[in-house]
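Protein modeling request. Please complete all fields; requests missing the sequence field cannot be processed.
Requester role: graduate student
Desired output: 3D structure, token encoding
Chains: 1
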Amino acid sequence: MVRKRARRQGPIRASLWRFRRSPLRRTSDLVEAWLLLVAWAVGVLGGATAGALAAMVADQDFEEERSARRQVVAVLLENARDAVPGHADVSRSGAAVRWTTPDGRTRTGRTTVAAHTRAGTRVPVWTNARGDLVSQPPTESDALVRSSFVGVGAVMATGCGVWASARAVRALLDRRRMRQWALDWERVDMRRGGRTA
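Delivered output (197 residues):
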């Protein structure tokens, strides 16, 4: 029973060896242990925070985009099929439309409509505050999906940045340890009179 408990604690104790006092522990081992601990904390907590903040900002931007655009009714000025000569088999085409801006001015532009739509048909279009044609803003569900992707991207970017930084510092520590080992082997070799065997 005592043996089983020792086995269970073995991997935990083995992973914490850098934090224990030992004549074999080097300063670089302790630095590496703290580096890994900080990297995990920053990677997890910082990544989650960055992801949540990025998703909130993106969601707010999508909300502002939705509130800045309004749907108005425009009149189609030409048959949609005539707008794309030689392409009678297309399902949607860009055709000229006319609409009225919030300040009462009449504007014209091109928008995408179903290919079978005839001139004179009223079609919904989206405009910005100045009355210019714009694309349809994302729906609430689309905005949620997009902001989720932005949040996941921020989490991944933060995690990759922390991981790359930790790897770079560990590489520097490994280089320092290799130089120290080379010096130690030279000292041992000098004590033996320059003989390595």
